[in-house]
Amino acid sequence: MLGSFLVFGAIAIPLGTGMHFIQFAPQWHAWRHSHFCLSRFSFSTAWPEEFLFRGLLQNMLSRSSKSDFAGWWTASVLFGFSHITNLGFPNWRYVILASIAGLFYGWTWRRAIQSLPPR
Fold first, then answer.
1. d(CA 119, CA 71)
2. Which residues in 68-93 are b (16+ Cβ under 10 Å) and which e?
3. How far apart are the C-alpha atoms of 54 and 119, rounded to whole Å?
4. Nearest to 106 by CA among 117, 19, 67
5. What angle is formed at CA 8 by the lines to CA 4 and CA 9, rounded to 5 degrees?
6. CA pseudo-torsion sign 68, 71, 74, 75
7. Residues of the chain with pLDDT under 70
8. Can you give the pTM of this predicted structure?
């Protein structure tokens, strides 16, 4: 999982900076409250979103298409398009970066599922 995170960062940070989607502008004073924001984001957005896109959608698409690859890529692109309205419509930069993130999230999910012992 750490490897996936590092490779994603190596791709997304230069791409996001080059597309002017993100910029390096640290606000060190805000770190005091980051634990609250991180936990709130995790429970209200990240976990439900990942349950929907990886746990349900990617799994169902993989089974219905009989292809883990097709389910993974389709769920990743749909994940990207689900972010098209974030920060204004249409936000194609967000779609591109979210699709790439979806590829890494989906790949990590596939690896985690494959590492589970058989039932």
1. 22
2. beebbbbbbebbbebbeeeeeeebeb
3. 20
4. 67
5. 120
6. negative
7. none
8. 0.84
